[in-house]
Each structure stands twice: as structure tokens, then as C-alpha cells.
Design goal:
InterPro entries: AOX, AOX_sf. The chain is mainly alpha-helical. The protein is built from 16 helices and two strands.
Length: 360
């Protein structure tokens, strides 16, 4: 028999904290928005479930996404609405509202793709191989065409894909350690911190309504899965190629956010920063935030940017992407024997040399 459908009904109006759902992050509220009828939908209903085994999680998400697909079809053209209603009737699915709506000001945000391209040409696109460059341009071309006039959903998809290469690096580095080939916990820790940074960019976009549409989630999750394995293969073949792919993505992200900030400054400076951004940049545990910024000298004061308005938030994200660019370039050059270690001096010696491990 197939998976059992979860109980139907409107998602609860009360938003749970991240700590209640995961048990390890304190005092990070989940943003809630109002749907067209004014009822609050917790964004946590789309990805912050209670734990379960693979079958339980998979079946729960399957039914939920099926309901959201049918809801999206009902809100489409007449022919699509008819198909959606027939499918819902055949599958015996009750009608549910679509996901949470973005805040009203989001509709006023713009992003001029032509000016992004001008900025990229002015800075110069990093050198790459034809295969890596083809994958990168395919990703950018697709996002530019599909998300023209929808910058926040575009950013959500971009951040979903951008964090996957760090998972790929960590996967292969774990494999090398398990096989006894090579051990580098310091580098894994840097990639963990980079992934954590991209995760918080993703959470910020979710707090602004990114990822609410069924199609956006479908596209982002399948693209992320594809690029995860592409980067794993690249890292196994030549780590320089894997790092080069991330370098291209992060460079594009930096230029895109820079244009977005300049283009929407008057709107962004009037909106307060989302709680998840304040927690990440100011009030929460800043260990990982400091860890991923490998270009800063060990003796330099820690970076503590302002985070009062949404303008501050996107300026911080823009600067984060520049830090990723510098780290990825360092990793690429280091693996190729053309540059120093991407790790700061204090971190290189923190665990001692390999000879020390063996002697002990």
C-alpha cells in the first residue's frame, strides 16, 4: 500500500521557534505571513517538520507538495484549473490554500539583469574550463529568464543551489578521511561555516516569501540535487574545477546583490531586518560567521556589520558573497599549487601537525 496521507486541515496559525523544532538553535522565531484571507501561515510548514524516518518524511512531503501543486493549478488558467480539479477529485484530495504570501513591499523590488551583466563584464568573469562555464551559464540563463521581475524567489533558488557545493566538498573530504587517504578537519570546518552562511541567506529569503511557490521549490530542489552530484564528480576528478564552479557562482551572486542593493536602496532602508538576520549577524552564536571569512587576518577585529534594516541585511549578504569569492579563489589556487593555504595561520596550527598526531 502507498503512503498514508496526513490529516487534512489548515496549518496552525502559531509559529514555532527553531529550537522547538530542532532542539539546537535558541530564540530564532519562524516568520509568519498573512494569506489573502488574512490568516497567518507559518513558513515552518514548508520544511521544518518534526523528525521521522525517511519513509515518514518523504511521504509527508509528497502529500503536502501534491496538495500545493493542485492548489497552484487551481489558481492558473482555465484549462489548468480544470485539470487540477479533475486530478484532485480522482485522488480524493481536499482543496487547500496556497502557501504564504510575501510581504506587500516585495512586489516593488526590482532587479535589472542587463545592469548585472554590465557589472560582471566590468569586473571580469573568472577563468574556467568549457564544461564548468557551460554549467554555470546554463544556471544563470535559466534563472534570468524564469525569474525576470521576481528577485526574491530568484535569490531563494540561487541560495538553495549555492550551498550545495559545500555539501559536495564535505562529502568527498569525509570519504577521503574514512578511507585513510587524507585528513583535513580544518578545511571541512571552513566549508561547514560557508554552508551555514548560505543557509542563513536562504532563511532570510524565506522570511521574505521566497520559496512559497510550488514551482520554485520544485525547480530549486531538483537543480540542487543535480549540481550536488556534478560538483562531487568534479571534486573527485580535480578539486580545482569544483572550487572554480563555486567561484563563478559566488562572483555572480556578489554582482547580483550589489546591483539589487543599489537599485532598491530607498525601499530596503524603510523595512526592519527580519529576526533571523538579526540573530545571525548580531545576537546569535557568531562562531561560524567568523569562521568562513578566511581572507581576514587572525589578528584583525571580527566583522560586526550593522543589521537594523533590510538594506543592512542585503548589504551584508553582498559582502558575504565577496568573502566566498576570496575563499573559493584561495582554495582553487592552493589545490593547484599556485597559492597559500586558504586557512588562516592560527587555524592551520590549531590541531597540530600530522607528525604530532602520529607521535601522540
Amino acid at each position: 500500500s502507498g503512503p498514508q496521507a496526513p490529516a487534512r486541515g489548515h496549518p496552525p496559525a502559531s509559529a514555532h521557534t527553531d529550537a522547538e523544532q530542532h532542539g539546537h538553535v535558541a530564540e530564532v522565531p519562524v516568520a509568519a505571513f498573512a494569506d489573502v484571507e488574512g490568516e497567518a501561515w507559518p513558513i515552518g510548514a514548508f520544511g521544518n517538520d518534526q523528525p521521522a524516518n525517511a519513509w515518514g518524511l518523504g511521504s509527508r512531503v509528497f502529500w503536502r507538495e501534491l496538495d500545493q501543486l493542485l492548489a497552484a493549478m487551481r489558481s492558473g488558467p482555465v484549462w489548468l484549473r480544470v485539470v487540477g480539479e479533475e486530478l484532485a477529485r480522482a485522488l480524493q484530495r481536499e482543496e487547500v490554500p496556497t502557501g504564504p504570501c510575501p510581504p506587500p513591499f516585495v512586489a516593488s523590488l526590482t532587479l535589472d539583469v542587463d545592469k548585472v551583466i554590465e557589472r560582471e563584464n566590468a569586473r571580469g568573469v573568472p577563468e574556467s574550463t568549457p564544461f564548468v562555464k557551460a554549467n554555470f551559464f546554463l544556471l544563470c540563463w535559466t534563472l534570468d529568464r524564469i525569474y525576470d521581475g521576481r528577485p526574491i524567489p530568484k535569490f531563494w533558488v540561487l541560495e538553495t543551489v549555492a550551498r550545495l557545493p559545500y555539501f559536495s566538498y564535505i562529502t568527498v573530504l569525509h570519504l577521503y578521511e574514512s578511507l585513510g587517504w587524507w585528513r583535513t578537519p580544518q578545511l571541512r570546518e571552513v566549508h561547514n561555516a560557508e554552508e551555514d552562511n548560505e543557509l542563513h541567506h536562504l532563511l532570510i529569503m524565506e522570511s521574505l516569501g521566497g520559496g512559497c511557490a510550488w514551482f520554485d521549490r520544485f525547480l530549486a530542489q531538483h537543480a540542487a540535487l543535480l549540481y550536488y552530484w556534478v560538483v562531487v564528480a568534479l571534486f573527485l576528478l580535480d578539486p580545482r574545477l569544483a572550487y572554480n564552479f563555486s567561484l563563478l557562482v559566488e562572483e555572480h551572486a556578489f554582482v547580483t546583490y550589489a546591483q539589487f542593493v543599489d537599485e532598491n536602496r530607498q525601499i530596503l532602508e524603510k523595512v526592519p531586518a527580519p529576526p533571523i538576520a538579526v540573530s545571525y549577524y548580531r545576537t546569535g552564536d557568531l562562531y561560524y560567521f567568523d569562521k568562513f571569512q578566511t581572507s581576514r587576518a587572525s589578528t584583525a577585529p571580527p566583522r560586526r556589520p550593522p543589521c537594523d534594516t533590510l538594506l543592512d541585511v542585503f548589504a551584508n549578504i553582498r559582502d558575504d558573497e565577496q568573502e566566498h569569492v576570496l575563499t573559493m579563489r584561495s582554495c582553487q589556487e592552493w589545490w593547484g599549487g599556485a597559492g597559500p593555504s586558504p586557512l588562516r595561520g592560527a587555524e592551520q596550527s590549531a590541531l597540530g601537525a600530522r607528525e604530532d598526531w602520529r607521535r601522540w
